[in-house]
Design brief:
- The protein is α+β, with helices and mostly antiparallel strands.
- Helices cover about 30% and strands about 25% of the residues.
- It has two domains: about 5-280 and about 475-485, ATPase, nucleotide binding domain (Nucleotidyltransferase, domain 5, 2-Layer Sandwich), CATH 3.30.420.40; about 285-470, ATPase, nucleotide binding domain (Nucleotidyltransferase, domain 5, 2-Layer Sandwich).
- The longest helix is centred in the last third of the chain and has 19 residues, at about 410-430.
- The structure holds adenosine-5'-diphosphate (ADP) and D-altro-hept-2-ulose 7-phosphate.
């Protein structure tokens, strides 16, 4: 037993679906999955008399980054075959006898991105029925994709949504294909996030289902009436037949049509969820909690009051956006494009410099060294503004370094300053003063980049004047499993 998961607090003010009636026919063993940007995580969560327990977990890096097939400038695509391979490796590493007990599957994953497939040929099940392999499936164009320039985005019709349109958002990517490679879209008749694709394959859905969490992340989705901006899109020639059906987070999308890695056929599969919302769900128990998630990207968030409704129109200049959560609730989110991916880029740069100096150093060996070096440098006057990927509200503001003193140039100084810069950047988007004004009493930390990096945790604890409690590195997968226990 790895640890007992915070039990859901039923009752007033809790955004989470009510716990299944005690002793009711609720699930006993749930598989939670997070199809993240860097790694896939899987978690087996069991119901015990003490609440929910994380029985087993596994993670595998996908190494799925691929060149843009369509030669899209600044394209960021991932090979779906490699994502599914990492998923299969994770499940194969979990105990068979526990997988055989699984009655429900909760799936979350990286939001905004889009993958296309041929609805009745999206995968091929192995002879044994144990696993499926993708077929007639495109690459995943991820949330980090930069093909939609500001000029292209401004040529698109204004959305009737509170979420501003940005590059890497599913609907923006479809518009890009429509304009630059229309024949590409003709090969497919289904689309969704990577997690929607997996749900559709497991349940053999002819029409993909998508939760409003993921629909909102695509753009052109009205969260108030839970519908796509179909009229606006049709007028622009958008292939609206590609838009999935939208359902409520926590609802059941269907049942597995085959046994899957030992999980019996007929297991209930939840509608796919946003990884960020599931990371929050795994730990948020009080409305006075703030959550800081640092995985490939980074988010700092607080709950909005019950009954809050987002504005009708988007505000592209705002650093904070409102994410649909559960039960009609919303989260106010500083969603940064710069999180673990900045540290990963720094590690890649160190490896590249070493190679240019004739040294071969594995990136996996660099992480512990830069962390150790920074632990030895408790302070650094260096000031790093880390936004090498820009931000959605300030796409042109790239990274910068200042206060560079001759004594501040060690690997340890630079690493600590970089970690501090990541946290300061989030706090520039959602200031500490605002957290205090809204009554935040505690910060819950989640995401692998935080779980694996003591220096980052030290800087979090220096900058945020609140107690900080950390989760594990499989938070979104645990959250996706918890949703299945708490859904009606
Ligand atoms: N060995 C390591 N030590 C410290 N940090 C690491 C290590 N390996 C990866 N990371 C950090 O973890 C981040 C990926 O976190 P992860 O939770 O796997 O991402 P996601 O959920 O987006 O797939 C990377 O961007 C990197 O910054
Ligand atoms: O960009 C946003 C929100 O706008 C982020 O929540 C982003 O969608 C998420 O980080 C992605 O879902 C990727 O998550 P992760 O792979 O970084 O865990």
């Amino acid at each position: 037993m790895v640890g007992v998961v915070p039990p859901a607090r039923a009752g007033q003010g809790d955004s989470r679906p009510l716990m299944a009636a005690a002793g009711g026919p609720g699930p006993t063993c749930v598989l939670g999955i997070d199809l993240g940007t860097t790694s896939v995580k899987a978690a087996l969560v069991t119901g015990t008399e003490r609440g929910l327990a994380l029985a087993q977990s596994c993670s595998r890096e996908t190494q799925a980054h691929s060149d843009s097939l369509g030669e899209a400038p600044q394209g960021m695509e991932q090979d779906v075959q490699k994502i599914i391979r990492a998923l299969n490796e994770c499940l194969a590493a979990l105990p068979q006898q526990q997988l055989q007990q699984v009655t429900h599957i909760g799936i979350s994953g990286q939001m905004h991105g889009v993958v296309f497939w041929k609805s009745d040929k999206g995968c091929r099940w192995s002879e044994s029925g144990a696993a499926f392999e993708p077929e007639r499936v495109s690459h995943l164009v991820t949330w980090q994709d930069g093909r939609c320039s500001p000029a292209f985005l401004s040529s698109l019709p204004p959305p009737q949504s509170h979420v501003s349109l940005a590059t890497g958002f599913g609907c923006a990517t479809v518009f890009w294909y429509l304009k630059n490679s229309p024949d590409f879209l003709k090969a497919y008749d289904a689309a969704g996030t990577i997690q929607d694709y997996v749900v559709a394959m497991l349940c053999d859905l002819k029409k993909p289902l998508m939760s409003d969490q993921n629909a909102a992340s695509w753009g052109y989705f009205n969260c108030r009436n839970k519908s796509w901006n179909t009229d606006i899109l049709k007028k622009s020639g958008f292939p609206v037949h590609l838009l999935p059906e939208v359902g409520d987070p926590g609802s059941i999308a269907g049942r597995t049509t085959c046994a899957w890695h030992g999980i019996p056929k007929g297991a209930k599969v939840g509608i796919a969820l946003g990884d960020f919302q599931c990371s929050v769900y795994s730990c948020l128990t009080e409305r006075t909690d703030a959550v800081l998630n640092i995985s490939t990207s980074a988010q700092l968030t607080i709950s909005m009051p019950l009954g809050f409704q987002p504005p009708e129109a988007p505000d592209p200049s705002s650093a904070v956006t409102y994410f649909p959560y559960f039960n009609g609730d919303y989260l106010a989110v500083a969603a940064s494009l710069n999180g673990g991916n900045v540290l990963a880029t720094f590690v890649g740069m160190v490896a590249q410099w070493a190679q240019e100096l004739g040294l071969e150093v594995e990136e996996s060996a660099i992480y512990p060294r830069i962390i150790q070096a920074a632990l030895a440098q408790k302070h650094s006057k260096l000031s790093v503004h880390p936004t090498i990927f820009g931000e959605r509200h300030l796409p042109e503001l790239l990274a910068s370094v200042s206060s560079i003193g001759a004594s501040e140039l060690s690997l340890g100084h630079v690493t600590r300053a970089l970690c501090r810069g990541l946290v300061e950047n989030l706090c520039s988007m959602l200031p500490v003063q605002h957290l205090q004004d809204t009554g935040v009493r505690r910060v819950l930390g989640s995401g692998s980049a935080l779980a694996k990096n003591e220096v980052l945790r030290q800087e979090v604890e220096r900058i945020l004047p609140f107690p900080v409690v950390y989760g594990k590195d499989v938070d979104a997968a645990v959250g996706a499993a918890m949703v299945m226990f708490h859904s009606k």
